[in-house]
TrEMBL record, chain A:
Its main location: membrane. Keywords: ATP-binding, Hydrolase, Nucleotide-binding. InterPro entries: AAA+_ATPase (IPR003593), ABC_carbohydrate_import_ATPase (IPR050107), ABC_transporter-like_ATP-bd (IPR003439), ABC_transporter-like_CS (IPR017871), P-loop_NTPase (IPR027417). Pfam families: ABC_tran. It is found in: Cell inner membrane. Residues 6-235, 249-489 form the ABC transporter domain. It comes from Pacificibacter marinus. This is Autoinducer 2 import ATP-binding protein LsrA. Part of the ABC transporter complex LsrABCD involved in autoinducer 2 (AI-2) import. Responsible for energy coupling to the transport system. PANTHER family: AUTOINDUCER 2 IMPORT ATP-BINDING PROTEIN LSRA, CARBOHYDRATE TRANSPORT ATP-BINDING PROTEIN MG119-RELATED. Belongs to the ABC transporter superfamily. AI-2 autoinducer porter (TC 3.A.1.2.8) family.
UniProtKB/TrEMBL annotation, chain B:
Part of the ABC transporter complex LsrABCD involved in autoinducer 2 (AI-2) import. Probably responsible for the translocation of the substrate across the membrane. GO terms for cellular component: plasma membrane. It comes from Pacificibacter marinus. The complex is composed of two ATP-binding proteins (LsrA), two transmembrane proteins (LsrC and LsrD) and a solute-binding protein (LsrB). One of its GO terms (molecular function) is transmembrane transporter activity. It is found in: Cell membrane. Keywords: Cell inner membrane, Cell membrane, Membrane, Transmembrane, Transmembrane helix, Transport. This is Autoinducer 2 import system permease protein LsrC. It comes from the Bacteria. The chain crosses the membrane at residues 12-32, 38-59, 71-102, 108-135, 156-177, 207-231, 243-270.
């Protein structure tokens, strides 16, 4: 038995008499990367928060470096050599990167400056320590979190979905760095929904379901099918592409963009046909989100023409866009999508409030929600529940219900499966397919090339704000990657 | 120049203040003198102390509206104890003790019991004022001894003892906020959850901010009593709102995490110098509030507009660079 850097023995946790963790054993050894997998709501995050002292356990024992974690506070866990890199980077927007990394350390920030610039260089990223953290991109915010762990000399690093906001290239860099840490005797816990990522770096895997450990073995001994069936019985793989769909070439274009330019993109032209799923892909920073936001009037349009059903289309605000039938689902569901503390049925009605009667009739709104609840398979207790209490996948479905309630002609989905588990991802895929079948045009923005290939009838690739190329249905991820990355190199040359 | 304004609202405010003072000096000769500066400083002491007290509370993204009542409570404690024959140092210690206890109650309500700070301090605003009125039976406290009044009188180089004390408090707070632990007050307001994740004692920090506010308000109460020589039962009423206005004017964000001691000082001096200017310009005192309010709005609007313009410029610049294949792509490329 190798030495465990951190372990949980028969740990359990209940919230208001609802048990969420039920007697879980878990350990991280020196020099290993331990993958932790589970559906949304399986208890992964809670388990890791218990290990990091953020949430007290209701029962069982937490040990770090052989010593019991007491008192169970984050400060104590960090002092004992464990750092949790949370899924959403926790940054102080008004402080410099340096201050962000050094808050809570025993000496003042200035004394760590050289150490941190060295670490940044080792990580192979370019990041100035003096910029205000508010200006950082999501990927750089993750780097700040990882730096926090490294500068604290943490022997155990827990990475909670570190790759969900990263591009494939950045993911590779992160993996190299993780292997480096493993080889220098660190223990890492790696949480991700993407099985191929887990397989690429992990030594052991533990699968959680409903608060129990349902699978725990060496990675090499675990077949994909075993892992998937342990995680969500009944799902053995991501459902395959539903045959080859009929071509849309003969259909009329619903939305046409001509030489559109704006913040972060120039000279973009493409069209979407009726009932078509158009994959819009590229790496983070390629200008896809900016393009979508410009279309619905969130950002100013610098140049170009857009026609919707052969009529010139220009939305001054998302409200106007919705009225004309163009609905946009933001990539940041917590910040721009959901009203987290409002009941579910409010969220579903939130894009169509102007169509509701003067005196609200909540009975109809609840009924509307119930229709979508069955259609989309939203798992919840009642329409009056707060959205914040649902898991990520179900939150995303509530967002979709909100968009569908507005009866869009063109639906723009920005990263609809970010942070969503395999089961819910399958559901969302079939919802998108269903929509397209019923004649809605869907623009699917995604950085996950597999997802784009899986769903799209046509693929448009953007790189560095330019249109890099268009690929037909069935193109391979390699072809996409080539377009998405090569255009960048030429831009630099 | 524009960059300077972009970084700091303090810069805008500083220029407006200098502009206003020069304009008043041009209209009313004799205004621009060291004597006036000394008057402005001593007139602003009470507001300054209350503002310096509330400042760390706002940095932690809470608010304290009970400052005026704590001021009154401390002034009354001081007045009653000196008139009861306690020695001056003991009376001052008791007044500060009252302020610190009041601050600790606020801190307990917010940090320990988790009451929203606006609710908690609105409650204690009435509570402390009531305690003060019951203590005096609604009477004014008069006939304070000369050695107390001496603390507020301008003695050496145009400064009073309380003036020097206040200046030291300003320096103390400035130094503290630049220290490692001082930074904690700013980061708690910037992102409370992040501070908790990094193991900061968030609740203790919030509690201490309220205690500090109580202590500063009690020093303001002592200053108030020493300057006017008696304690009326409405002592300090409404001063917390003026202090908050001065803080906002000085660039302190009500959303927490942003602000500087220099901004607080200039914000308070701006308000006080307007009041003093009106005396020199022979404008009746009942115009003070209207003019003060109008100036506040003007500065905030100009500053807001400038900031929007600068942000638009920075944003445009960022996207122009992006079109040339600039920094947005740099990370991916370095990684490759």
């Amino acid at each position: 038995m190798e030495f465990s850097l951190a372990e949980l023995n028969a740990v359990s946790k209940s919230y208001a008499n609802t048990p969420v963790i039920k007697g879980v054993d878990f350990s991280v050894r020196a020099g290993e990367i331990h993958a932790l997998l589970g559906g949304n709501g399986a208890g992964k995050s809670t388990l890791m928060k218990i290990l990091a002292g953020l949430v007290p356990a209701s029962g069982g024992q937490v040990r770090i470096g052989g010593q019991p974690l007491s008192p169970a506070t984050p400060a104590q866990a960090q002092a004992m050599g464990l750092y949790l890199v949370p899924q959403e980077a926790h940054i102080f927007p008004n402080q410099s990167v340096l201050e962000n990394v050094c808050v809570g350390l025993p000496k003042s920030a200035a004394e760590y400056r050289t150490r941190i610039t060295d670490l940044i260089a080792q990580l192979g990223v370019s990041l100035s320590v003096d910029v205000k953290a508010a200006t950082l991109e999501i990927a750089d915010r993750q780097i700040v979190e990882i730096l926090r762990g490294l500068v604290r000399d943490a022997k155990v690093l827990i990475l909670d979905e570190p790759t969900s906001a990263l591009t494939p290239v950045e993911v590779d860099t992160l993996f190299t760095r993780m292997r480096g840490l493993r080889n220098s005797g660190h223990g890492l816990v790696f949480i991700s929904h993407k099985l191929h990522e887990l397989r690429a770096v992990s030594d052991r895997i533990t699968v959680l379901r409903d608060g129990y450990v349902v699978h725990s073995a060496d990675m090499a001994d675990s077949a994909d099918a075993d892992i998937l069936s342990a995680m969500s019985p009944g799902v053995t793989t991501l459902s395959a592409r539903a045959g080859d769909k009929q071509g849309h070439a003969d259909k009329a274009a619903v939305l046409t963009l001509q030489n559109m330019s704006g913040e972060g993109f120039v000279d973009i032209s493409f069209d979407v046909k009726q009932g078509e799923v158009l994959g819009l892909t590229g790496v983070v920073g390629a200008g896809r989100t900016e393009l979508a936001e410009t279309l619905v009037g969130l950002r100013p349009r610098a140049a170009g023409n857009v026609t919707l059903d052969s009529v010139s289309f220009r939305a001054k605000s998302p409200f106007e866009a919705i009225k004309k039938g163009v609905v946009h689902l933001s990539e940041d569901r917590q910040q721009y999508g959901l009203f987290l503390e409002a009941p579910l049925f409010w969220n579903t009605s939130s894009l169509v409030y102007d169509r509701l009667p003067f005196f609200l009739r909540t009975r109809y709104e609840r009924k509307r929600f119930d229709t979508y609840r069955t259609a989309l398979g939203i798992k919840c207790e009642s329409p009056d529940q707060h959205v914040g209490s649902l898991s990520g996948g179900n939150q995303q479905k509530v967002l979709l219900s909100k968009c569908l309630a507005a009866e869009p002609k063109v639906l723009i989905l920005d990263e609809p499966t970010r942070g969503v588990d395999v089961g819910a991802r399958n559901d969302i895929y079939s919802i998108i397919e269903q929509l397209a079948e019923n004649g809605t045009s869907v623009i699917l923005i995604s950085s996950d090339f597999d997802e784009v290939v899986r769903l799209s009838d046509r693929i448009v690739v953007m790189a560095g704000g330019h249109l890099a190329g268009e690929l037909p249905s069935g193109a391979s991820t390699d072809e996409i990657a080539q377009l998405a990355f090569e255009a960048e190199e030429t831009a630099h040359a | 120049m524009l960059e300077w304004i972009a970084r700091d609202r303090v810069a805008t405010l500083f220029m407006v203040t200098v502009g206003v003072i020069l304009a008043v000096g041009a209209a009313s000769p004799g205004f621009l003198s060291l004597g006036t500066a000394s008057i402005v400083w001593s007139n602003g002491l009470v507001l300054m102390l209350v503002a310096l007290g509330i400042f760390p509370v706002i940095l932690t993204r809470n608010i304290d509206v009970s400052g005026g009542s704590v001021l009154g409570l401390s002034a009354v404690t001081l007045g009653l104890s000196v008139n009861a024959g306690f020695a001056m140092p003991i009376a001052i210690a008791m007044a500060m003790g009252a302020g610190i206890a009041a601050g600790a109650l606020n801190g307990f309500l917010v940090a320990v019991l988790g009451a929203p700070s606006i609710v908690a301090t609105l409650g204690t605003l009435g509570l402390f004022r009531g305690a003060m009125l019951i203590a005096t039976g609604g009477e004014w406290i008069e006939g304070l001894p000369e050695n107390l009044k001496a603390l507020g009188a301008r003695s050496f180089a145009g400064l009073s003892v309380m003036g020097v004390v206040t200046a030291s408090i300003i320096i103390l707070l400035w130094v503290f906020l630049r220290s490692r632990r001082g930074r904690w007050f700013m980061v708690v307001g910037d992102n409370r959850e992040a501070a908790r994740h990094l193991g900061l004692p968030v609740k203790r920090i919030e509690f201490l901010a309220f205690v500090w506010a109580g202590a500063a308000a009690s020093v303001a109460g002592i200053t108030f009593a020493s300057q006017i020589g008696f304690v009326p039962n409405q002592a300090g009423t409404g001063i917390e709102l003026r202090a908050i206005a001065a803080l906002v004017l000085g660039g302190v964000s009500l959303l927490g995490g942003v602000g500087s001691v220099a901004g607080v000082v200039i914000g308070v001096i701006f308000f006080t110098s307007i009041d003093t200017s009106l005396v020199f310009l022979k404008i009746p005192a009942y115009w003070n509030d209207l003019i003060g309010g109008a100036m506040l709005l003007t500065v905030l609007l100009i500053d807001g507009r400038l900031r929007i313009a600068l942000e638009a410029r920075d944003r445009a610049a960022r996207y122009r660079r992006g079109e040339q294949g600039g920094p947005d792509l740099k990370n991916a490329e370095d990684a490759a």
